[in-house]
Amino acid sequence: MDPQEQAELLAGVRAAADAAGVPIVINARTDVFLRQHGEPAGRLDEAISRARRYLAAGADCVYPIMLADPTELRTFVEAVAAPVNVLARPAAPAPAELAALGVARISYGPGLYAATHAHTARLLASIAAGGGLA
To answer: CB neighbours of 56 closer than 8 A, spacing ≥ 6?
Structure first.
């Protein structure tokens, strides 16, 4: 979605929630890294620009989904000066390192489900082969 359209949508959601007296937290995704928007060298600046725009529109937190490089994460966190959400995944720093970088929120997406599903499949295969729950 165009960043201006997204900002307008976020502003509308914030206004509607405020008018209804419903406290919500808006976690605005910046899909620059997910969608590989533009040239790699400009993605961090674009993500920061979008994040700032979304925060100004009423977002409480920004989510540069798929951003995992520690140096870029620190730059992003410092530049937006607001809560940042990061997707936990094998390429991302561990939770303690994310916290040290200033990340405020970690999302696990489908990762926990996928790990549980894979573990369960291994257990069932072991049982089917006559083994136990090892």
So the answer is: 7
pLDDT tens digits, residue range 6-32?
999 999 999 999 999 999 999 999 999
Q: What is the 3-state secondary structure (H, E, C) of 73-115?
A: HHHHHHHHCCCEEEECCCCCCCHHHHHHCCCCEEECCCHHHHH
Of 55, 99, 46, 50, nearest to 81 by C-alpha is 55
Please indicate, yes or no, whether the overall pTM of this predicted structure exceeds 0.90.
no
Q: Which two tokens stand for residue 130?
A: 């006559």
Stretch 84-111: mean pLDDT, rounded? 93
70, 94 in Cβ contact below 8 A?
Answer: no
> In whole angstroms, what is the distance from residue 122 CA to residue 134 CA?
9
